């Protein structure tokens, strides 16, 4: 019996990365060729991914009932695998890469340690290959994907949007890896953590760089330049009190945001003031007092003092007085 369906690339500006797979991209040291193959695969299955996104998501779900993966898979294949057919020109559009490099990447992606998936039968994990049985000729690449891996890519309970052309324009393989990591902090505007923790989260060996300055020169600066140039989201960073602060911004408004938000602390204060002004009905002079308190104490310290500790009925000057009383304790 042959497979009923083969996936081929579709022209996309953006592809969708499941939260499960995002974690893999952070931990796995993928090459540029592998990253290109990944976004091509994601372009092939974006329509199928949209079936698993809730109605409230950015992508409309036209199905009247939520489809299950098994129902969807039943229409694709009579076996436990799905076929992919990728034109070689999609991977190597300018023919700058050697065919051997592409072949090596394909073989590497069949390595059993490429993915780690949950195995409910043993309440643990199993190592699996990302693709199976790669083949190629002068014009196309052919491979299969296991049902378990496809399910991993279609788990849209939480997902991230990624520009498809990023692996074609980025100067470093670290760019995609770092972007996938920092995107999880997008809803907070950024993140602050110490240098050693940043390295751990990015799965970088502690002695990889000779100190923090080398990390900035060889890692952060090139990634920031890539994202500023060819992505709609980039970041600023600063280092203070042995911690890095990363602030995300829209590159379409890069110049104004770059000047306005120099640190994550400033970004968080700005957002907090807007929220509190409306909720607590503060006037201009009261906002000025609160802003000064944030500047002196810092966002983290002051927020711990006032969040959920000031009676919700206090408005205007009564709210400010309650904060001052709380700070004196």
Low-pLDDT sequence parts: 57-64, 256-261
Classification by helices and strands:
alpha+beta
- How many separate helices? 15
Strand content: 15-25%
Strand order of the largest sheet: 1-3-7-6
As a percent range, the share of helical residues equals: 40-55%
Q: Describe the biggest sheet?
A: 4 strands, mixed
**Element string (H = helix, E = strand):** EEHHHEHHEEEEHEHHEHHEEHHHHH
Question: What would you call the shape?
Answer: elongated
Can you count the beta strands? 11
Could you tell me the mean pLDDT?
84
Distance between the termini: 75 Å
Radius of gyration: 24 Å
How does this model look, in words?
There is one protein chain. With 329 residues, the protein is of the alpha+beta class. The protein is built from 15 helices and eleven strands. It has helices at 19-27, 32-50, 69-74, 88-91, 99-108, 147-153, 166-169, 174-182, 195-201, 212-230, 254-260, 264-279, 284-297, 299-306, 316-328; strands spanning 6-7, 14-18, 81-87, 115-119, 124-128, 132-136, 140-146, 159-163, 190-194, 233-240, 243-250. The strands form four sheets. It has a four-stranded mixed sheet. A three-stranded antiparallel sheet has the order 9-11-10. It is elongated and about 75 Å long.
